[in-house]
Amino acid sequence: MNLKKIILLGGVGLASAAVGILLPSILIPTLMSGGHAPETAAPATSHDAKAGHDKEKSGHDAKKEAAPKADAHAADHGGHGSKDHGGHGAKDDAQNLPKEGPCFLHFGQMVVNLNEPQLIKFLSIDISLQTDAKYEAEVQAALEATKPKLKTWLTSHLADKTMEDIRGKVGVNRLRREIQDNFNSLMFKDGHERVQDILFEEFHVQ
User: Fold this and answer.
1) What is the per-residue pLDDT for 166?
2) Residue 151 CA to its chain's centroid (Å)
3) SS3 helix, strand, coil % of the chain, rounded to 5?
4) Residues 110, 152 contacting (CB under 8 angstroms)
5) What confidence score (pLDDT) does residue 50 get?
6) How far apart are CA 60 and CA 53, in angstroms?
7) Which residues, including other chains, have CB under 8 Å from residue 161's CB and lie 6 or more apart?
8) Tell me, what's the pLDDT at 158?
9) pLDDT tens track of the chain, all 206 residues?
10) pLDDT at 167 (0 to 100)
């Protein structure tokens, strides 16, 4: 065998050996992965971006939902304030309006012996004074200031009455008029009658 054949056979042998070494390293991983070359993981940029967009959208929706609640609270607060101030103003206006019509001031109860020599008779009366509402404060102040004088006069006046003096409607109404005239004289020195009537809440003889 000449030198040329020897060299050719040697080259073929080296090539076969190289193929035998490289082929298993290529085929074995391919067969283990199911016959497909391994793929690199695709970047999750689109999914993350979508998640971020959804998160941003959720935050935006939360703001939109919170805004009407805040507006509703502000509206409620505004309405409450308007109602309070309006009601307070109406109350003040009502207090500032002049009072009209009659008003009644309680004087108190009196029990006095009547002028009956043969019988012991007691007259028990509970008195209220009627006046106009515009004089209420003035009459109340005068009543408190002169009440001891009024009681003293009334006790003496009733003690001088007999059963005949206070009998029936005529006697009772005459007594009311007498008390009214003298109360006005003792309470007010200008001659203007502010006590308009005397009312008996109780009138009892025993």
Assistant:
1) 95
2) 48
3) 65, 15, 20
4) no
5) 47
6) 10
7) 114, 115, 123, 175
8) 96
9) 555 555 666 565 565 555 555 545 554 454 454 544 444 444 444 444 444 445 444 444 544 454 445 454 444 544 444 444 455 555 555 565 557 789 999 999 999 999 998 888 999 999 999 999 999 999 999 999 999 999 999 999 999 999 999 999 999 999 999 999 999 999 998 889 999 999 999 999 98
10) 93
Looking at the structure of the chain, the number of domains it has is 1
Q: Is residue 36 part of a domain?
A: no
Q: Are 127 and 108 in contact, with CB atoms under 8 Å apart? A: yes
Report d(CA 164, CA 115) in Å as an integer.
Answer: 10
Residue 65 in any domain: the answer is no
What is the rounded CA–CA span in Å between residue 179 and residue 195? 10
Judge whether 164 lies within some domain: yes
What is the rounded CA–CA span in Å between residue 195 and residue 105? 10
CATH at 156: 3.30.479.30
Nearest alpha-carbon partner for 131 in 121, 143, 123: 143
Beta bridge partners of 130: 104, 197
CB 164 within 8 A of CB 101: no
Residue 137, token pair as written in the block? 């404060």
Residue type present at position 91: K
Query: Considering the domain boundaries, does residue 44 fall inside one?
Result: no
Q: What is the span of the domain harbouring residue 167? A: 102-205
Q: Which amino acid type is present at position 74?
A: A
